[in-house]
Model the fold of this input.
Amino acid sequence: MSKRETPMTRWYWEQVGGTLIEEFLAVRQSVNTGYRRIDGIIVRGGEHRIAKADEVDLTDKDIIVVQTKDGRLGMYLIGQAYFSAHLMMRFSPRTIQSVALCRKSDAVLSPIFESYPNMKVVVCPRDV
Done:
């Protein structure tokens, strides 16, 4: 958990509701792979609470993947958000929306990212 990014992820969760799973382990580390954590998974329509990953079955659920950076939207955050959505397909949700959550958008990168289905940039206010 990050002192600066966790409050941003929670702010977004408060806007959309549902069940939040923080620091979701999407890929376990092995000899051939590094571990991959996602800042937040929100189960739409779920009970309004913060849950542990083993408490929630994502199968056939509508989910939001949240990748958060306390700065301007950049290619690193876009890559995280894009590939995180693809990694979550392994858990068989019904739908996946991916959110790149940042402090400031980018006039060039934001339209490119949002041209992909279910990809969205959200700007978090500075006072969060």
